[in-house]
Amino acid sequence: MEFKDLEIFQAVAKQGTITGAAKELNYVQSNLTARIHKLESELNTPLFNRHRRGMSLTPEGKKLLSYSQKILSLTDEMKQAVQNQTEPSGKLEIGTVETVIHLPKILSTYIKNYQDVDLSVFTGVTETLQREVLNHKLDGAFVTESDFHPDLVSHQVFQEELVLISDPSAGSLEELKEKPFLCFSKGCGYRARLETWYKDQNITPKRVMEFGTLETILQSVTMGLGVTFVPKSAVNHLEQNGLIQCHSLPKQYSTIKTVFIRRADTYLTATIAKFIETIESNK
After folding, report:
1. Could you tell me the pTM of the whole model?
2. CATH no. of 161-254
3. Does domain 3-82 have CATH number 1.10.10.10?
4. DSSP the chain
5. What is the CATH number of domain 87-159+257-281?
6. pLDDT tens per residue across all 283 residues of the chain
7. Which of 2, 22, 189, 202 has CB 3.0 to 4.6 Å from 126, enough for a Cys bridge?
């Protein structure tokens, strides 16, 4: 079994077809098909279910996918450790929740200082981003502080206040309890905080509406569709322009920390070390 076989296997698992994987890797399809058959022969088990729409992993294939991700991640880590690069370079894949107000400054500073790094940024909710870092799919992520998995280490970025926001014509905080709750999907730290407040106040939201982006949530609030719970820094401009009304909740619900997480057991390359230094210098 070769490392390249595992890379091909991962590409087919990701794309769901030999055609898609061949396009991603710039390989001839027949070559990929032969390598997959060879891998299945070596392991003496089918790794994919073949059907009209493409290919899906068998239970054994799912197990191999998990192991292959760890193996290839360790291989990359080994190369980086042996090469002992002092100057950041290569790929750096970072995740973030949508409301990290300092993120543009952090990214721009890092990119200007280390132009050999190929930086990619992915958005998501805290729970999903934690899982992506644990599974070696992301090098690190900006998330809401919580009880993290023991394999993760966190670096504090900043602390801020969450506020309940509504359209300007909404009434008192008591009246807002009747409004629909607009939020991200489960796993969002801000959503979890407001749900805790609802629970402690014995409130059951009349309706919970999930959205994919912060921009859509904020626009919906300004139009009177409902309320949401977000960092005050993310909506200061809307409040100043009279588009929303901010309502404060007690500190145990509204004070929140954003942290940068990474796997504790991975080699700290110059690329990620300098990224953490950039975070520290931009606090």
Report:
1. 0.67
2. 3.40.190.10
3. yes
4. --HHHHHHHHHHHHHSSHHHHHHHHT--HHHHHHHHHHHHHHHTS--EEEETTEEEE-HHHHHHHHHHHHHHHHHHHHHHHHHT-SS--EEEEEEE-TT-TTHHHHHHHHHHH-TTEEEEEEE--HHHHHHHHHTTS-SEEEEE-----TTEEEEEEEEEEEEEEE-TT---HHHHTTSPEEE--TT-HHHHHHHHHHHHTT---S-EEE-S-HHHHHHHHHTTS-BEEEEHHHHHHHHHTTS-EEE---HHHHEEEEEEEEETTS---HHHHHHHHHHHHT-
5. 3.40.190.10
6. 788 889 999 999 999 999 999 998 888 888 899 999 999 999 999 999 988 888 999 999 999 998 888 888 878 777 766 555 667 888 899 999 987 878 889 999 999 999 888 999 999 999 999 999 998 889 999 999 888 899 999 998 888 899 999 998 877 777 788 889 999 888 888 999 999 999 998 888 889 999 988 899 999 999 999 999 999 988 999 999 999 999 999 999 999 899 999 999 887 888 899 999 999 888 7
7. 189
